Amino acid sequence: MLSDPTGLGPAVKAPYLSWADLVSVEPELAELEREARNLRHSWPTYESLKRRLKALVGWDARRPELQSAEAWEVAIQRIAAALESPPGGPRRKRHRARGTIKRRREDRGLNLNQAKFSG
User: Fold this and answer.
1) pLDDT in tens, 33-57
2) Measured between alpha carbons, how far is 104 from 99 in angstroms, rounded to an integer?
3) Residue 19: which of 10, 11, 30 has the closest Cα?
4) Which of 7, 29, 9, 3 is nearest to 18 (CA)?
5) What's the rounded Cα separation, in Å, for the pair 21 and 72?
6) Residue 102 — very low, low, confident or very high, per pLDDT cuts 50/70/90?
7) What is the spatial distance between Cα 45 and Cα 63, in angstroms, rounded to a whole number?
8) Neighbours of 111 (CB within 10 A)
9) Where residue 114 falls among pLDDT bands split at 50, 70, 90?
10) Which residue of 15, 24, 61, 88 sits 20 to 30 Å from the alpha carbon of 31, by its own alpha carbon?
């Protein structure tokens, strides 16, 4: 068994943190998440949100309870997921009506089934 050079004893793992735990300590996180959900995903937007998040959670947080790597991981994953969701909620995929491309070709006289190729 390895000896502890610091004399502080074994490291104690912090209990699992949830998003609700973080928001209960720092309510501003919920507002940041709402804002992220309403923004379009882009690299500058992500970087801007990340800078603001650093003041709320992680090693540079204002509150000592949120100054941990685990708190940062929970928060950045939540904000990134919120930013990736489309503004206003999920959207359905738009599908073209079947046969649209074929009709366009026929309108221009490009019916490939009847084309004659000279060789």
Assistant:
1) 999 999 988 899 999 999 999 999 9
2) 9
3) 30
4) 29
5) 12
6) low
7) 25
8) 11
9) low
10) 15
